[in-house]
Structure formats: structure tokens, C-alpha cells
Amino acid sequence: MAYDLAPIRHLYPFESHHLDIDGLRMHYLDEGSGPAVLMLHGNPTWSFYYRELVTGLRDRLRCVVPDHMGCGLSDKPQDYPYTLATHIDNAERLVDHLGLADLTLVVHDWGGAIGCGLAVRRPELVRRLVVCNTAAFHGRTPWRIRVCRTPGLGALAVRGLNLFARSAVVMACKNRGRMTPDVRAGYLLPYDTWAHRVAIHRFVQDIPVHNSHTTRGLIAEIDAGLGGLRDRPMLVCWGMRDFCFNRAFLDGWVRRFPNAEVHRYADAGHYVVEDAIDRILPAVRGFLGE
Questions:
Q1: What is the pLDDT of residues 154-164, one digit of tens each?
Q2: N or C: which end of the chain has fewer CB atoms below 10 A?
Q3: 87, 108, 263, 270: which is the annotated catalytic residue?
């Protein structure tokens, strides 16, 4: 599918690439050269979220940033298994397609479970991790997200009124100077119709709130495998005003990776890379030693 990127091209000046996955096109960025950095976004963002990290690193690193199927500039099939397991499979196929190795993973929101799922499955591929307001283990789900799972009401709110994505550009970003009209338009651009918001809704539905949820066991398996990654250097960049991935999730990462380098941003929210890019970019560059 084609979107008119002209209104945001000054913010998103990248060449598009696509990987065919069973007849569907998965969009990704592939900028720069050198050691590979794989950046995995969450819900309801897309590769646009990492735009300034890419421009700040591509002079010395190869930045690969996919849009998960159904997100961003990727295809948005309506009848598709939008599950954590499928997103991990797709990320693995992209990594293998591009021949990536010795990876630095940068993860946010759902990208944490997807990226760590890949890392636990293929630990030989991963050299370092950069963790930004995310989880790869079970935790509390806020009521304002749980309500979006309500049958009927959830679809109306998330797909019909676009409240999930529209609310996120307000609630998830605390640095109002960053959320200009152009930036807001960039976040919302790919999610302009009911059909194009299918993955946003399915991500919400895939949150394993109940013990019977099929994704719950996979999250537990990923969590159990994190110990095998403890020797990997980890940088944690955390927005302390996040209503979703709060201090309890940060504590969860610190318990699992006690040697991690942790940066806490008291003025940043869930969209921490948006809120605090001026501090996160130099922190990442220093961590990578590039």
C-alpha cells in the first residue's frame, strides 16, 4: 500500500525497503553501514519513532528498523495472526534475509517482547541490548489499556475512533515541544482508516492479561530465557512518567540484569525516545562505543 509521505519527508528522509513474507510486504529501513543495530518499535508506533536515533547513528552504524506487519508502511492484512509469536518469526526472517549478526537490539514497548523473543531463540545473533520502557515478562496492565480489550467497545474505540493512537501522542509524550503538528501527523499517518488500524487492535488483544491467554506461556518462556542473556551489555533508557511501563517494570529489568547501565529520565514518559532524544542519542553512542 502507498502513503503520501511528502508531508513528513523532512522528518522521515529514508529510503523504503520491503521483505516479502508469504506474499505480504514488510517495510523496513536500512540506513548506514557498519555494525548492525536492529530497532524494534511497539504499539501504536512504527519506524517513525526511531527516526532521530537512525539519523544520529547511521554515520557509523547500520540501522535496520522494520515496521511490524500491520504497522507503519507494512501491509495490513485483515485476516492475519497478529500474535507475539508471529512478530518474532517475522523479525527473525528479516534478520536472516539481511544476514545480520553481532546485533545490538534497541527495543521499546512490544518491541521488548519481540526482540527478546528473538534473542532468546537466537542468542548467538545478539551482542548488546538497549531497553526503552518495555517488558519481556509479565506485569500490570493499566485499566485504560484493559478497557480497549472490551469486546465491541474496544474495536469501536481503537479502530473506529482511533482513540488508542490519538491518545498516545498526548499521554505517552510528556515533552510537548517535541509533539509538533508535523510529528503528530507522522505518528498517525499510517493509521488513517478502520482497516489500517487492525494491528493496533490486535496488539491490544494479544496482551496476556488472563492465565488462559495463548501468549502468556510464550512471555513466560522468554522471561525464563533472559538469564541466558545476562552476560550481554545492556543500556536501559527509562521515562519515569510512563503510565504503562512504570517503575515496577524498570525494577524488573534491573533485577534480571543487575549490571545494566541505567539512565532514568524524570521528565520523560512512555515515548521516551521522543521525549529525551537529546540525552538518549549520546547515551546510546557512548554505550556502543562507536
A1: 788 999 999 99
A2: N
A3: 270
pLDDT of residue 14: 98
* CATH number assigned to the domain comprising residue 92: 3.40.50.1820
Q: Look at residue 2 and tell me if it is in a domain.
A: no
pLDDT for residue 146 is more than 90: no
How far is C-alpha 232 from the geometric centre of its chain's CA atoms?
20
Report the C-alpha gap between 126 and 13 in whole angstroms: 28
pLDDT surpassing 80 at residue 23: yes
Q: In sequence order, what are the beta bridge partners of 36?
A: 62
270 an active-site residue? Answer: yes
Backbone φ and ψ of 255, nearest 5°: -65, -40
* Farthest-apart Cα atoms in the chain, separation: 49
Upper half-sphere CA count for residue 42 (Cβ side, 13 Å): 28
Is 6 contained in some domain?
Answer: no
Question: Active site residue: 67, 75, 223, 242, which one?
Answer: 242
Among 67, 75, 109, 275, the one annotated catalytic: 109
- How does pLDDT run across 35-91, given as a tens digit for each residue? 999 999 999 999 999 999 999 999 999 999 999 999 999 999 999 999 999 999 999
**Residue 8: inside a domain, yes or no?**
no
Domain span including residue 163: 15-288
Asked, for residue 185, whether it belongs to a domain, the answer is: yes
Q: How many domains does the chain have?
A: 1
- Say whether 242 is catalytic: yes
- Nearest to 43, CA basis, from 226, 271, 275: 271
SS3 content of the chain, % helix, strand, coil (to 5): 45, 15, 40
Task: Give Cβ neighbours of residue 175 (< 8 Å, ≥ 6 apart).
Answer: 267, 268, 274, 275, 276
CA distance 222 to 251: 17
State yes or no: is 109 an active-site residue.
yes
